[in-house]
Amino acid sequence: MTPPPAATPVAAPSSIGAPRRSSLGALIAGANGRLLQPRAWGRFRVVVDLLVLYLASSVTLFAAAPMRAIPADRWLAAIFPLVVLAMMHARRTPDEGLNGSQLDTSAHVLGVVSLAAMLTIAVDSILGGAHPLALALRLWLFAVVYLALARAILLSVHRRALRSETYSTPTLIVGAGVIGSHLVKRLVGEPSYGLRPVGFLDSDPLPGTQPETGPSIPVLGGPEDLATAIETTGARHVILAFSSERDQVLVAKVRQCQQLGVDVSLIPRLYESINERTTLDHVGGLPLLSIHAIDPRGWQFALKHAIDRSTALFALIVAAPVLIATALAVRLSSPGSVLFRQRRVGRDGREFDVLKFRTMREPLAPGIDFELPEGIAPGGVEGDDRRTSVGALLRNLSLDELPQLINVLRGDMSLVGPRPERPEFAERFARDVARYEDRHRVKSGITGWAQVHGLRGQTSIADRVEWDNYYIQNWSLRLDLRILALTVAEVFRFRG
Length: 496
Fold this sequence. Notes:
Blueprint: H1 23-35, H2 38-62, H3 71-88, H4 102-126, H5 132-162, E1 169-174, H6 178-189, E2 195-201, H7 226-233, E3 237-240, H8 247-259, E4 263-266, E5 279-283, E6 286-290, H9 299-318, H10 320-333, E7 339-345, E8 351-357, H11 389-396, H12 404-410, E9 413-416, H13 423-432, E10 444-447, H14 461-473, H15 477-491
Parallel strand pairs: 1-2, 1-3, 3-4, 9-10
Antiparallel strand pairs: 5-6, 7-8
């Protein structure tokens, strides 16, 4: 076996050619960098939460009737922020995770404040309050609005700052193989995770571990060079991906990271089978992960499909004027049928006709055959651009997809799920792309987890498969609602 290449020493970042910062600028940047550290940011968020909640309580008491507040009301208004704060931070909040979103954060705030308001009603009733319901409703309203707005601003500022190389966390990847390379691709492609790869550690790295775009990530040696690599790169986070090292070596490296004050994460074995329902137990001192898989033929999906059909029927009735106006516009824009039908592959490999409003004119002459690039999913404009002016507008607003509500009502599709593909492409991708056929366990959707992550039109089919399989493994009605909300935001260009 060819010996692995010697580790290339990496010099400390040079200041030659770099713009000089003033002492005040350096002080501000250093303060911001310390504030954005996870522990410091967590403490800062607690302080902001407390100030915002007491502001909400003060507005509750004094905005409407400042002179009529009784002592019991003042006591409850003073205690209410502390109750909400304790409940908010009793467990990890959504915006503390790498994938936290404004929607999840607002839902968490709504749930916590609602529970605290109900507790306020109960306590005030026990204490003999004259109007516990009115007070609790005012506290609930102002606390939800103020706290949700404050958390949304904090999350936005935090994510925006982490996209900057200055404030992102330098991260070492232990394992320069397929999984390590894929992890780097994701971290480089989405800087808002806040983890900036600065190097691999692997005694026997595989070739081709560099990201397709972005900076080159060097191999800094093997796991035995961990301390040196941390000192050289300033890494504050280490991720254990798959490597050829023995477990005893990696466990020792985890302890070494803890001694150096460096955070550690790991990608578990059998990660393809782990979803958000996985629970952690212990048998003696051994951790035991229990995997709770989603059953696409279980009662949860039966409920999902019933909700889909009911929602589709309601949407067709409400959107009838839009559908009629759109049909007339398509008819008047160019000759041809109003609806466009195309064979697609759905659940269990069953074919059906997907419906759309026609957005293209008929070809005047035979066009050039469209060749799909390797590794790319079809979609968008293929070959000659024959879109009408009305069709271009319909595609831009996604109104051409509205007739698929009829597919949902028929039971061919769902509101949310993997996008269906044409039979010839489905057959090709089943041969070429790992786990592609897993999407056929569920009904196809009008929108999906891949689409709200920007994978529309001619984009990577492997990325689509990854996101779609994540959706299937982690499905919930809550996730469906999140995807629908993100789809609306995408249409109105509010995504991100």
